[in-house]
Specification:
Blueprint: E1 2-9, E2 15-17, H1 20-28, E3 32-37, E4 43-47, H2 48-61, H3 64-73, E5 79-82, E6 88-90, H4 93-96, E7 106-113, E8 115-119, H5 121-130, H6 132-144
Antiparallel strand pairs: 1-7, 2-6, 3-4, 3-5, 4-8, 7-8
């Protein structure tokens, strides 16, 4: 399970050093992440076992037309990336273009249980600010999970 926010510098080749807590989870599942375009602004990344779960779920829950669309618009756009010996992960080029990297050459990895989201830090902060009111209105139920 992925959780937390991690700000990572991106080098000129589009690689970032994977933070230790995330690195351990990736190493335990085969050293590879499958990157794909998200619905909103982020790029999504799944471990191989979780990617296989998503494919199986699509096969079971989508009808033939929906599966075809899923394959054409999601699977065909997905791209694997393997963590190197130095603990760096390359964000595939065409997907990296979806994350407009600031002058700081930084991205934020956001743990979302079964996947990671890779955001431009400015876009991430804007998204959080825009959704604070909704979060506040649901605060009681959300915090009740931890009581």
């Amino acid at each position: 399970m992925f959780a937390g926010q991690y700000y990572c510098k991106v080098d000129e080749k589009g690689r970032f050093v994977v933070p230790s807590p995330i690195r351990e989870k990736i190493e335990a599942t085969g050293n590879t992440l499958m990157f794909l375009k998200g619905q909103d602004l982020p790029v999504l990344a799944y471990t191989n076992p979780e990617w296989e779960n998503r494919l199986k779920k699509a096969e079971e829950e989508l009808d033939e037309d929906q599966r075809r669309l899923f394959m054409y618009h999601m699977v065909s756009e997905a791209s694997p990336s393997e963590m190197d010996r130095a603990g760096r992960m390359l964000i595939p080029g065409r997907l990296r273009k979806l994350i407009p990297v600031d002058d700081e050459q930084e991205v934020v990895l956001v743990g979302m249980f079964h996947r990671l989201e890779i955001w431009n830090p400015s876009e991430w902060r804007l998204y959080v600010r825009q959704n604070e009111e909704t979060y506040e209105s649901h605060m009681g139920k959300i915090q009740g999970i931890f009581l």
